[in-house]
Amino acid sequence: MEYAEDDYLMISGIQHFKFCRRQWALIHIEQQWEENVHTAVGELLHRKAHDPELTEKRKGLIIARALPVSSREMGVSGECDVVEFHLCEDGIKLHGHRGLYSIYPVEYKKGKPKLTEEDRLQLAAQAMCLEEMFSASVPEGAVFYGETRRRERVEITQELRQEVQKCFREMHNYFDRKYTPRVKYSKACSACSLKEICLPKLGKSFSVKTYVNQMLKEEEE
């Protein structure tokens, strides 16, 4: 199955979706967003990574910034913060450049490495788009964290690929149905930029059914 361009979802949405399906739906289906200090710092870091004036060409290395990528198979599109093309013996040809090159995507994040896999899934999704676009293999990439100022190498495993495909299928299903999941409160809600919109504690406290039943009970008394 291939998706039409009008049906493409944002690649970056996979990190929201994996973190919290409701957060993803509020942003990508209901078009709600709210800045906090975390999103502001992240935006500044990405602006630097996406600056076209910082494009670099060195011996044996080409660095592309804000490279548009997409996948018809997964129905997604977006931008890679940085893609490095390394001169190698077994790679792909690049228009206007001699030799063969391997592909190495690098995603920029403001914080530090996470125990959860949202960042790795986003990088894997970018790698899979690059593979489809260039008819090449992208077995590895990296996530650069602003807090540690270090790259974390990520192997694009079969498990990551399967989870990426699973997430995008579910995201398309939600988007087509315009479905926003109910609140599932957790400790992570306190750092969410949408907590004032989502109201997770309120959602946990009672459901509409519980509220109506309580009101009827009070009227009977």
TrEMBL record:
Mg(2+) or Mn(2+) required for ssDNA cleavage activity. Signal peptide: none annotated. GO terms for biological process: defense response to virus. Keywords: Antiviral defense, Exonuclease, Hydrolase, Iron, Iron-sulfur, Manganese, Metal-binding, Nuclease. Residues 12-199 form the DUF83 domain. The keyword Iron-sulfur applies. It is an enzyme of class 3 (hydrolase). Its EC number is 3.1.12.1. One of its GO terms (molecular function) is metal ion binding. Its cofactor is iron-sulfur cluster; [4Fe-4S] cluster; Mg(2+); Mn(2+). Belongs to the CRISPR-associated exonuclease Cas4 family. CRISPR (clustered regularly interspaced short palindromic repeat) is an adaptive immune system that provides protection against mobile genetic elements (viruses, transposable elements and conjugative plasmids). CRISPR clusters contain sequences complementary to antecedent mobile elements and target invading nucleic acids. CRISPR clusters are transcribed and processed into CRISPR RNA (crRNA). This is CRISPR-associated exonuclease Cas4. It comes from Candidatus Enterocloster faecavium.
